[in-house]
Amino acid sequence: MRILVAPDKFAGTLTAVEAADAIAAGWRRQAPLDELDLCPMADGGPGFVDVLHAALGGELLAVTVRGPFGEPVPATLLLAGPTAYVESAQACGLHLTGGERAEEASTYGVGELVAAAVAAGAAEVVVGLGGSGTNDGGAGLLAALGATADRPLDGGVAALGGITRVDLPQLSVRLVAATDVDSPLTGLFGATKTFGPQKGIPEERLPALDGVLEELAVAVDRRTSLEKGAGAAGGLGFALLALGARRAPGIELVADAVGLERRARAADLVLTGEGAFDFSSRSGKVPYGVAACAAEALRPCVALAGQVLVGAREMRALGVESAYSLVELVGEERAFGDPAGALADLAARVARTWSRE
């Protein structure tokens, strides 16, 4: 059999590249004659630059930017022809905040990444959005690119209260916001109420901070705040859209870059995976995008995940034939203590069911 292995990262434990390698190792143990095509994936969040570099080649440039609390952090941008790719999580990711102090966390460093890409000669900058620990509506990014306002833009959402005026800079570069969610900036399904709790914002603070982002939206462009993807990465999507960015689903951008559709047609079975496979995977996440490509190619798609949090009906709605849980097979302690080994064991078990050997 020809097997396409196209997982996302397993957040907090394995990169997409490591996950693909672990799945391949386990599969080969059980079905050594199968041909495996490893195709690590990303949706705009952590791993975006690495996956695209593997697919496109190009030049990696190391830079140092301001982290979410002002500390210097290392980051990497990818130059591939006239296009630069940057990963917002490298400058303001949840791994840098530890899920704390989201009210003070700034996206200034993401703006510095964009500025570094422009300085390197890029005509277009694609910003991967996802995995952020910030909730400042992209105000920090705007500040780094030259915006001014009547409130500090680089002090996190806590500093924005009472804002009434924002003067946006004029940029000569084309911007693309590669998002993994389609939520608006504010409201019941906006950045704060949907993703704030996982960034450490207490429940009782959510309405007030959503109100602050509403003030920012009015000061910049209320209509833009309602667009799909404006709520991505704590509102970074909103800032980019306000600067004229084109929105592109991150999974589709990566799928095109790696030739996912062509590779799915050449396979007999498609494997995907992520840390937690749940119904939110339908909102621009890797497993849904991979499953959609598999369906287009009339190939079955199977998911391997740290946890499977959907039933059979929801799974089929996501285009996945079967999903297998790492925690269910080996237990939580081993799943986190030896994620690569545990994922390889799970892949070997799946191969017993799905391989023709």
Automatic annotation (TrEMBL):
InterPro entries named among the record's database cross-references: Glyc_kinase_flavodox-like_fold, Glycerate_kinase, Glycerate_kinase_RE-like, Glycerate_kinase_sf
Family annotation (Pfam families): Gly_kinase
Enzyme class label: transferase
Superkingdom in the source lineage: Bacteria
Enzyme Commission number(s) from the entry: 2.7.1.-
UniProt-listed Gene3D superfamilies: Glycerate kinase, domain 1, Glycerate kinase, domain 2
Keyword set, alphabetical order: Kinase, Transferase
Family recorded in the similarity comment: Belongs to the glycerate kinase type-1 family.
NCBIfam families for the chain: glycerate kinase
Name of the featured protein: Glycerate kinase
Organism for this UniProt entry: Nocardioides marmotae
